[in-house]
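Objective 1b of the project was to move from sequence-level analysis to a structural picture of ligand recognition. The entry below was assembled by the postdoctoral researcher (A.K.) and checked by the PI before modelling. It contains the amino acid sequence of the target and the SMILES of the bound compound, pyridoxal-5'-phosphate.
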Amino acid sequence: MKKHNFFAGPSILSQYTIQNTADAILNFADTGLSLMEVSHRGKEFIAVSDEARSLVKELLDVPDSHDVIFLGGGASLQFCMVPYNLLKKKASYLDSGSWASKAIKEAKIFGEVEVVASSKSVNYCYIPKDYTVSPDSDYFHITTNNTIFGTQLHAIPEVSIPLAADMSSDIFSRPIDISKFDIIYAGAQKNLAPAGVAIVIVRKDALGKAGRPIPSMLDYQIHIDNESMYNTPPVVPVFAALQTLKWYKELGGIVVMQKKNEEKAAILYDEIDRNRLFTGTVAVEDRSLMNICFVMNDEYKALENDFASFASKAGMVGIKGHRSVGGFRASTYNALPIESVKALVETMQAFEKSV
Ligand SMILES: *Cc1c(COP(=O)(O)O)cnc(C)c1O
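Corresponding predicted holo structure:
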């Protein structure tokens, strides 16, 4: 039976990415050797790394003021690398979810942290919008998409200081104005590649000002100077990332992705709103286009397990909600075909009829 992959992360990748990476694991760039057993400093892999970074620049329209690097350690390492490199005295953070709050915890190690607003008391079911950001903060940190709770910033906040953003779960899903940001980071395993690499886009002239010694592996400048090859990079995830980037380009770029994502999300939210069994969990204006959370209405709560097994028998995979929200979460990342969303909607309709 066809499986429809709604996992939140690691998550669905395009068949193009999976097939080309599988081929390279058997025979990389006609070397007769596996991608996993050749030097990362050989010309074949350097070409992969260079092309991947330049495609990120092209697809996201990254200005020359910024550099793109690939780093190990996932997005969570960035929670400390950002303040290590950029926080001089004080930084402001928006507490919009569990990942944001983890970033806040790390930043506090390096200086004063102003939490401008939080929706924690209502289980992060909306994005706070009424707040002021201290003009003397070094940066304002936002999480553009809250993977666990299913909320997303549909407008980038207008503030007078540089922005820093965790875009792990919505990078490449819509165009962004990079020039507003000192730093953007994202773990690969939501919209790009298997886990093991993070992508970082950093404004060059924001670096070198933190006024503290930085260990080499945590110093953005060292990774920029070494073109993401200061140490051995995670070669398989970087190779896979390049395949996904090529696939995005072939399909017409990020604007095309955005259109597809809007279409997919609309189909599923419409069904959640229409179906008498289900209800969304977050403020309508903040609904994520990447992670769509829903629960069963109170009078049908007892049927959640029944729906879970019904959906699983219909080929739906990974729709169990995060333990902090419960219910269901369907992640509709770039690589998820619209057919999968339609199949989920049909499953919801069939279950409704059976009740
Ligand atoms: C998944 C995720 C993370 C954590 O990523 P790791 O690579 O596992 O460290 C951080 N932030 C957001 C928004 C995420 O979705």
